[in-house]
Structures are given as structure tokens and as C-alpha cells.
Amino acid sequence: MSFESSRLKGRIATLLIVLLPIITATAYLPIYIFRLSTENIIYLSIILSALSYVGYILFLMAMHGFSKVYGENRIFKNCLYGFTASVIGAVTFSLVVYTVLVPILDQITAYAASPGTVPSLSVVASFLQVMLVVWLAGSALAAIYGFFYRRAFYMLAEKSGEGNFHTAGLLVLLGGALTIVIVGGLISFVGWIIAAIGFFSLKPKPTQTYTSPSEELSGQALTKRCPYSGTENNPDATYCVHCGNKLT
């Protein structure tokens, strides 16, 4: 895979990763306008989350290309580990939401639809317990995600010489670690913006040409002629091997 192809994939991928959360937030406006049901809200969340992974898959392909370009497989491997952690988190969250949270939310909605009734304490407690488990598990997976993406970005920065990737890796790591206190998502988002800037600033490293010994000597005299005897000597000889006179 060529440098240009990998760089183009990286640019498109990071733009998708940055823009899709904004599109997602905008897409939730109809929820409040048309008062969609809880189940429809869940389906909308799953669809938008799946679309966001298009950017991550394209980013994974770009990092695979750069691992070939720079001869460093760990760029792709660490990115793959981080991507796997995020997929596990997304799938687990979707299953929990659909199988556990939706029934609980339906019960709460039913109580809300009946004037003068309030949800039972057990229903509220179940909802809070599930949310706590999801929050803690999601934070742990986000930290793992940030750790591996940071390593991938650091290696890419080292090999490419583009410092923005170093900054992006640090912010993604901090964002993953701080997901448990909510602000982590914003920090990771800024990290991906920096990564996008890095891909748009990335330049191919100048290729170093190597000259073989024979090529180095092609423009130099291969022998040194003695002015006294006319004998051909090695180019680094000081005295003639035939007459012993000093060579000039």
C-alpha cells in the first residue's frame, strides 16, 4: 500500500470520526420535536454508532498501510487492539441496552403515563445498578482503547516525523482514562481533531539514496600511475611498488 493511499484513508477516516459525533448530536433533535419512543431512540443510537465505525475501519486500513510504508507492524497491531476494545464495548453496550435497559425504561415510561403513580423503588434501583455497571465497564474499555491508540500514534509520529500524532496520542490516552469523569470524551474528540490535522500536514519522508562502493569509485581514479616507472599502483598507495619512488 502506497504512502499517498494511506494518507488519503487517514484523512477521510479522521474527518468521519470527528464529524459523525456532531451529526449524531444534530440527529437527536427530532427526538424532542417528534417525541420518539424509547425503542426508536435506541435504534437510532445503534444506527448512528454503526455509521461512526465506518471511520474507525477506514482508519484501521490507513494504519495498516503506514505499518507497511514505515516497516513497523506495531503501528497496525496497537491500532487493531484499540479498535477491538472499542468494538467489544459497543457490542456489549448495545446488548445491555436492548435486553436490560429498554424493559426497565418501558416500565418507567408506563408509570409516567399514569397520573399519580411513581416508579417502584426496585425499578429505579435496577436502572441505577445497570447504568453504574455500564459506566464502569465502558470506562475501563475506554482506558484500554486510549492506551493502544496512544501507542499507535506515538509510533506513527516517530516514523513519520509528524509531531501532531504525538499530541493526538496523548489526548486520546487522557480521554480514555478520564472517561469515568465524563470529560474524557471531549478530550478524545480534541485528540482526533489533532490527528486529522496531522494527516493533512503529513509529508513523505525524503528517500535516502545509497551508493555502492563501485559507484563511489566510478568518478575517481582506480589506479595511481608512477611518474618514474609508469607502473599502475593502488589509488591510496604512497610509494611505487616497482621502483619505490614516492608517488605524487
Give the topology, please.
Blueprint: H1 3-27, H2 29-34, H3 38-69, H4 73-113, H5 121-160, H6 164-177, H7 184-201, H8 213-218, E1 224-225, E2 232-233
Antiparallel strand pairs: 1-2
Helix pairs in contact: 1-3, 1-7, 3-4, 4-5, 5-6, 6-7
Q: If you had to describe this structure to a student in words, what would you say it looks like?
A:
With 248 residues, the chain is mostly helical. The protein has two domains: 3-201, no CATH class; 215-248. 73% of the residues lie in helices and 2% in strands. It is built from eight helices and two strands. The model is unreliable at 208-212 (pLDDT under 50).
In short:
The protein has eight helices and two strands; from the N terminus they run H-H-H-H-H-H-H-H-E-E. It has helices spanning 3-27, 29-34, 38-69, 73-113, 121-160, 164-177, 184-201, 213-218, and strands spanning 224-225, 232-233.
Label this structure with key terms.
2 domains, 2% strand, 8 helices, two-stranded antiparallel ribbon, 248 residues, 2 strands
Main sheet overview: 2 strands, antiparallel
Number of domains: 2
> Termini distance?
55 Å
Summed up, the helix count is 8
Low-confidence stretches: 208-212
Strand order of the largest sheet: 1-2
Binned strand content: under 5%
What structural class do helix, strand and pairing data support?
Answer: mainly alpha
What value does the Rg take, in angstroms? Answer: 31 Å
Principal-axes geometry comes out as rod-shaped
Helix content: over 70%
The overall pLDDT average reads: 78
Number of strands: 2
